[in-house]
What does this fold into?
Amino acid sequence: MIVVGGEALIDLVPVAQPPGALVPRPGGGPYNTALALGRLGARTAFCSRVSADGFGESLLDGLRAAGVDLSLVQRGPEPTTLAVPSLAPDGSAAYRFYVEGTADRLFTLPRALPAGTRALALGTCSLALEPGASAYEALLRRESGRGLLTLLDPNIRPALIGDPTAYRARFLGWLPYVSVLKLSEEDARWLGGRVSDWLAAGPSAVVLTRGAQGLSVRTREGAHYEVPARRVAVADTIGAGDTVNAALLHRLSALPAGDPVDWPAVLAYAAHAAALTCTRAGAEPPYAAELRG
It folds into this structure.
């Protein structure tokens, strides 16, 4: 099983008609990752605190439909976090968040993950907003110590980070507990570090998403691979990076311990999945059948 921890929220996505209208769609980096994993056929559990309001119910309905285990989901009466993306001409998105007093911020450390859990993924707003951020950090440290494959996607949202210097220092403190660090070029620039330094701190691999330029990976052993992006008609890029997370986890967690990673094949699979997500408005990751052939 793969456990994905972090926020579930509602994206209020702009649509062309009527002008100025916003359509609510399920979102949040961890939520999208869990949804994508379920659609790819991976045994997946979502670990979060979700509101008992109507938005929260709709979020859980989406995960149920994808076959995601909800036994680790905590519930609360607080409202659901809202995110309003603004779309650039190339389909890329910037976000404005409404997070005060919302349910996902109040996540607490679960006693244990399900038996048979092989991997844990964390990232995005959940690691920037207290008090939940400290609980997720404790989860990362605990499960890394138990030998789980861990994937971190910082997915930086500057509007939510009050003290960038403190966040960058905290990020470096997570790296000894991370197996795979996945981040975008924008994240890397904001963090201001070097891939070589991050690899030296702990991860076995750093995967970089480069938009229309595709994906790359560098490993602790010094290997470097790149794959191009697939050419598609882009509706928007919402959820594309989260789909990459899911594709990476799906392939890496299936490998027997100690087996070498065929990184070009893994990256090509992730690029294909992300490209399909980009053809759809909002975060709509593909199903396994769409990636065959």
Remarks:
- The mean pLDDT is 93.
- The longest strand covers residues 9-14.
- The two ends are 25 Å apart (CA to CA).
